[in-house]
Amino acid sequence: MLLLCEMLNYMVPEKVFVWVTSIATFGAIWTWLMILLAQLKFRKSLTQAERDGLKYRIWLYPVSSYVALAFLLMVVGLMAYFPDTRVALYVGPVFLVLLTVLFYVFKLQPTQAAARTAS
Q1: Full domain range(s) for residue 61
Q2: Is the pTM of this model over 0.70?
Q3: What contacts 24+ positions apart, CB below 8 Å, involve 72-76?
Q4: Which of 22, 45, 46, 105 is in Cβ range 3.0-4.6 Å of 88 for a Cys bridge?
């Protein structure tokens, strides 16, 4: 990764900082999107008694989660609007597809990953 950034620095020095920070922003947005979607699905799967017993409450749930999702999607829209940050919307999904393909090619399963970290 460092070598790729260094090559980009020589090829397009005026754009490399914006590109790298845009790709990092895409990663953060993807992470928060997954967290918010998982949280919404988890809370929806709970019974009313289980929801009442939750130790941590989310302020204005579920509205606050949907507002956060809308904000993140707005940021993605802004990234698509500006040509310099649009590169992250090409590189990010390609990287996610690459990770998915590698996951299935190497047949990684949660039990295998746990066994590898334990040993």
Answers
A1: 2-118
A2: yes
A3: 72/29, 72/32, 72/33, 72/36, 75/25, 75/29, 76/29
A4: 22
Reported as a single tens digit per residue, the pLDDT across 35-83 is: 999 999 998 998 888 888 888 888 888 899 999 999 999 999 999 999 8
Question: Is the CB of residue 83 less than 8 Å from the CB of residue 15?
Answer: no
Structural tokens at position 25: 């922003």
- The pair of structure tokens assigned to 96 is 């996610």
Domain count, the chain: 1
DSSP 17-85: HHHHHHHHHHHHHHHHHHHHHHHHHHHHHS-HHHHHT-SSPPTTTTHHHHHHHHHHHHHHHHHHHSHHH
